[in-house]
Write a structure and sequence with these properties.
With 527 residues, this protein is of the alpha+beta class. Helices cover 50% and strands 18% of the residues. The protein is built from 14 helices and 16 strands. The structure holds adenosine-5'-diphosphate (ADP).
Length: 527
Amino acid sequence: MIDKTQSSVGRPARTVRPTLKLPRLGMALVLLLLPMALLIAAAVYFIRADAARTRELVWNSDRAEVENRLGRPLAAVVQAAKARAEGVLRGLPENLTTDQLITSIQNEECVRNMFLWVPKRGVVFPMVKGATREESRFLARYVTLFEEVLTKNAAPVVTNQVTGKAAPIVWRSWFEGAHLSFIGWRHFADGRIVGLELETVAFLSEFPTIFAASKFSDLVVSMRDDNAYDLFVTGSRPENLAPVGTLSLAPELPHRELVVWRVRPMAGLNLRYYLAIGVTILVFAVLFLGGVLLVSEARRERRASLQKTSFVSNVSHELKTPLTAIRLSAEMLSEGRVRETAARDRYLATIVRECERLTRLVNNILDFGRLEQNRRKFDWQSVRLADAVKEAAESQRARVEEAGFELVVSCVGDQTRLLDRDALSQVVVNLMDNAVKYAASGRYLAVTVSASGCVQVSDKGPGIAPRHRAHIFERFYRCDDSITATAGSGLGLSISRRLIEEMGGTLTFAPRVGGGATFTIQFGETV
Ligand code: ADP
C-alpha cells in the first residue's frame, strides 16, 4: 500500500536541459576574430609601409654618401682631364702647323689623338695616306663624326659643356662598342676645326685610387657599364643580394652608373623593426587571450546558469516527492481508513522517514547558501571519530536496510579531532544517501573508520565513470542529468567536501576494488 502510494508519486516531467547555443559562441568568435584579422592586416600594411619609407630614407642617406665619396671625385678627375685638354686646344694658334699638333700629342698626357678639319676638304690631319696604326684607328673610330657631324655643324656650337670665353670648346662622348671616349674641338674663324681625343687613361688611372679610398663600412659600390659589367668595385661584390639603388655618372661619364649594395643593415634599424613586430605580436596575443578568456568566461557563466536552472527543477522535485508521500500518508491516517496497527505504524514510519529526508535536503540547501557566503558556523568540539561516524551510520541503518542494503559499520580506534560533530554526521549521511540512491544494484554499504582515523563509505554499485570523476565535487554537477535519472540536486558531494575542508580534512573518491565507489575522509593532526 505504502509502496503503491510512493510509486504513485509520479515524477514531474522535468524541463529538458537547454544546450549551449554554439552558433552564438561561433558568432562571438567571429566577432572577435574579424576585427583581429583586420587589425593584423592593418599592422602588416603599416609595418610594410614603414619598411618601405625606412628603405627610402636609408637609400637617400646612402646615395648622398656615395655621391660625396665616389660620384663627385670621379666627376672631378674627368672634368680636370677635360680642362687640361681644353687648355691645349685653346693654346693652338690660327696659323697652326701639323708639327704643332704632333708635338701636342707627344707632350700632353691628356691628349691621345688630334685632328684638323678643313671645310670642303674634310680631315687633313692625320692624313689617311701614311697614317700610323693608331691614326688609322682614330680616323675609323670617328668616321661618322668627321663625315657627318662636323660637316653639318660646321658653325661654332655653343653647348653647356662649353667652357672659356675666347675659344668655345665642344665635347662629344663617343662609343665604340662598350668603349667610351671623349672628343672635343674648337672652331677657327675661317671655319677650320681643330680637335683632340681625350686620353681616357689620364682619368681612368685615378679611378682605382678613388675606389680604394672611398671606404664604405656598410656599402659595396660598383661602377658598371651598359652591359652590367663591373669596371671598378669598392669591395667584394655580394652574391644573392639585390642592390639598394643606382646612381648615374652622366654627364661626366655617360652610360656609366654606380650600383650600390647595403651589406649591413643601418644601425638601430633592426632593433626598431623587431621592436615594432614584437609589440604587434604582444598586442595581438593579449587581444586574443583576452577574447578567449571572455568567451570561455561567457561559456562558464552560461553553464553555471544552466546548472542552476536544472538545480531548481531538481530541488523542487526532491521537495515534492517526500511532501506528497507525507500528505498521502497523513490523509490515510486522518481519514481513519487504516485500522490495523501494523499498517498504521508503517504510515507513521513513512511520515517520519520522509520528514527526515526533507530535513536533510533543506539542511543541505541552507548549508550551501551559508558556505557560499562564508556564513556557516561550526560548533567546534573534540570528537572521537569512531563514535561520531558510527552514530551517524547507525542512525541510517533502518532506512538503508529497508532499501534492501546490507549495511556494515566497522568503526575502530580512538582518534580524536576538533570538529563540528553535526557537520561530520551530515557528510557521512550524504555519502550513505548517495549509495542508497545510486548503488542500489550492489545492495551493500560499508561505513568504516580505521585505527588511523581514515573514514570510508563504500558501496558495490556501478561506481563513477572516469570522465565524471574530476567533476563530481563541483556544485550542481550530476553524472546523469537526464529526465530518467535518479533525483538529486548535485549539491551533496560539493557541500560534503566544503564541510570537510572547512574542518581541515579532505574528501576524495576512488573506485572500489571489486566494483563500486569508495569515498574517503581524512583529517590531519590529532588533538
Ligand atoms: P546529487 O544530489 O545528484 O546526488 P551529489 O553531489 O551528491 O549530487 O553527487 C553528484 C553525482 O555523483 C551524482 O549525481 C551521482 O551521479 C554521482 N554519485 C555520487 N555518489 C555516487 C555513488 N555512491 N555511486 C555512483 N554515483 C554516485
